[in-house]
Amino acid sequence: MKKIIYIIIFLCLVFGTNNYQELNSISIITNIGITKNKDNYNLIYQEIIPIREDDSIKNKYKYYSSSGNSIEECMKKLDDKITKKIYLEHLENVIINTDSNKLILNLNNVFDNERDNFNIYITDDKVKNIIKYGNNYKYINNLVDKKITYKKVKINKYENRKTMIPVIGMKSNNLVFIKYKNLGDIND
Amino acid sequence: MDKIVNKTKEIVGYSKDYIFKEIDIENKKIYFMFSEVLCSGSDINDFILKKFSHIKKKDLKKIINILPDNNIKNIKEDEIVSYMNKGFIVCLVNNNILAIEVKKILERGITTIESELSISGPKDSFSENFNTNLGLIRRRIKSSNLWWDEINIGKSSETKVGILYMNDIVEKDLVDKVKNRLSKIDIDAIIDSSYLKDILEDNNDSFFPTIMSTERPDKVSMALLEGKVAILIDMSSYALILPNFFIDFFHTVDDYYQKSINTTFVRIIRLFAFFIAIFLPAAYIAVTTYNQDAIPLSLLLLLKAQRSFVPFPAVVEALFMIISFEILRESDLRMSSTTGSAISILGGLILGDAAVSAGIMSPIMIIIIALSSIAGFVFTSIELVNAIRMYRIIFLILSCILGLYGIYLGAVYLLYKLITLTSLNKPYLAPFSPFIKSEIKDSIYKEANTTNKYRNPILTKNKYRGRYK
Fold this sequence. Notes:
Chain A has 188 residues and is an alpha/beta fold.
């Protein structure tokens, strides 16, 4: 019995600490922007950095971007660029500038094993401008009453139901909600 | 007679505190032997020597009837030193060896409780005198069924140990088990009641206590009336109660002196405190190093901001804080009350604040460790506090290795340990495992003292309280 306990303790010590990551060593990504131009992809990460100033905590933002032939390639490049471990578990929004429902439906392959309750938005404007707009990671969420999460997109697809994706854009230097677009109406 | 005196002198090594006195009554020699540090000099003069100075030779045969003391015994030669060390004056007269009790009062009297404070209820506590302690219990339980058996333990100390029980309530098997275990003790001296704990416990490898020590006579009285056994030890101000269940350590005497509905609330708070004391630091480490997804983003950002300037890993920070707190507590315990408060201020306020300002500690870690340590002190049993302290560190290490899974694994192990633990062969986790419906009324939930009609069936077959039978 004791031998078994020792073996379990040993295995725990060897393999247990595999996912250990200190808060200081993770880069929390809250918003992601994806732009597709023909076969070229551009990816922007918005990292949120909380900073303690006197008695209050303020959030600062840092942006990272990369280009490649696929989103996976862009992510790999960003992974090399960012020294800290990229943390996508608390991803809030994904803003996509493309008229491709294939891309939206295949995000599962991109954010493998991560949370799927982030919101999906479409824009006809430059993603870079939208993602850098405002000083609060929640600013996009406040635009739309009926947000659509990626989880909901998957469920709707499974149940063959219509999915209305919100379209946002810049108007007179302000970020605004424009309309809802049916995912079925988006071309491949 | 001379031979006996000389032999006794040799046995005690001619120590100066043993007095050997010889008087003559009509050419008849009478010897007195006593310890001047244990016997009352004035009692010897007033009641023994004065009496002998007026006695005639012919009265010596009925000396037992003449002496006023009520505790006179005819003893054997080999018992002389033992009785001298118990505060008796030994008198050699007419080839008889008499031991007359003339104990000096070497006690501090009945004082107020220091360690198990209560808001309401009696304030008297046990002292180091066996008879006083027994008297405090007898004053509460006037029944003739309150019996006690005496055992002397310790080769050198010959400490008087009393096993108390209610003859009409207790299971005889329990008393026999206690006697049997005590009779097996082979030791030089029993200095305090804690010496007996090791031999009386079923599992010595468990952190959790199965024997309760208390300085409250009311608590002992309550336990006796439940069918438990109490042990009083001469020269110890703490009595031992056994067997005990895990839930007993969540109860205080105040629970029985307050309204039952309030008691239930307080017991729930204590249960929360137990979990906070053990699991809080481990849960913090797990969610900040493995399971960040388990907490909302706003809280995660708050924690990240607080930890941003700390150079150590979270687990090192937690262990450092725990060890610092334990050092502080230990020094506070050993210091006098005046110096102790200064150390508390220095450690708690100045060091804590300075550690945060210096960037060594994060404020949230200080809050976590302080909260879990304070929660641990909700309990009066120091053994339970120690068990909580040990499990806090074990869970902290487990959470550092496996995150929340480590805590789950540890919790299963803890539950396994509690379920398999016994106190005098009684299941430690009763009344939850095995489930006893009647005892739930005095577990976490508390029914009024007057309506709780049944005793714990695990402890006694005489389960009806009072006149309900």
